[in-house]
Amino acid sequence: MAETKAPSGVVPKRPGSVLFVCGMNAIRSPMAESLVKAIYGREIYAQSAGVESGSPDPFMAATMAEIGITMDRHKPTMLEDLADSFFDLIVTLAPEAHHRAMELTRTHAVDVEYWPTMDPSTVAGNREQVMAAYRQVRDALERKIRLRFGEP
After folding, report:
1. What residues pair up with 91 in beta bridges, in sequence order?
2. What is the pairing mode between strands 89-92 and 111-114?
3. Residue 133 and residue 148: Cα distance in Å, rounded?
4. What would the 3-class secondary structure string for 41-87 be?
5. Which of 71, 125, 128, 139 is the most exposed place for a label (fewest CB within 10 A)?
6. CA angle, 101 then 107 then 110, to 5°
């Protein structure tokens, strides 16, 4: 994943609000949103969206349930459907999401960071192999979130 650069190892300022964006808001961005909410509570306002319309992903829900996060209420949202469009930071998790975020923020003062994140839905195999790919993405996102935003 791309790292946020800061002089002399200083952790960048923790944002008050963050938007995670991926392709369909079905796997990566809702994972990241839920992880931020679970780790930071109300310290950071988090939301997620996708470039295109997606469907709830049962493997994502199962993977998050393993760590005690329920995703039953998640409904994929497109960028255009967001009620709030003002965020301190937008984190994109897929190339198409990054391009779209850069287009949308040309005239806004908002930081955009690209964290390239594998799409686990592309992994083939038996249930355990697929779940392993989803766990890998979940755990990598949690590490990156904690590294970028610091401990609560």
Report:
1. 20, 113
2. parallel
3. 22
4. HHHCEEEEEECCCCCCCHHHHHHHHCCCCCCCCCCCCEHHHCCCCCC
5. 128
6. 60
The CA distance from 123 to 120, in Å, is: 6
Identify the structural domains of the chain with CATH numbers, from first to last: 15-149 (3.40.50.2300)
Query: What value does the CA radius of gyration of the chain take, rounded to a whole number of Å?
Result: 15
**Planar angle of CA 30, 140, 111, nearest 5 degrees:** 65
- Kind and range of the H or E run holding 21: strand 17-22
Q: Do the beta carbons of residue 29 and residue 93 sit within 8 Å?
A: yes
- DSSP track, 103-146: HHTTTS--EEEE-----GGG--SSHHHHHHHHHHHHHHHHHHHH
- Say how far residue 22 (Cα) sits from the centre of its chain: 7
Per-residue burial over 17-54, b = 16 or more CB atoms within 10 Å of its CB, e = otherwise: ebbbbbbbbbbbbbbbbbbbbbbbeeebbbbbbbbeeb
CB 133, CB 141: distance < 8 Å? no
What's the pLDDT tens digit per position in 87-136? 999 999 999 999 999 988 887 788 999 999 999 999 999 999 999 999 99
C-alpha 98, offset from chain centre: 12
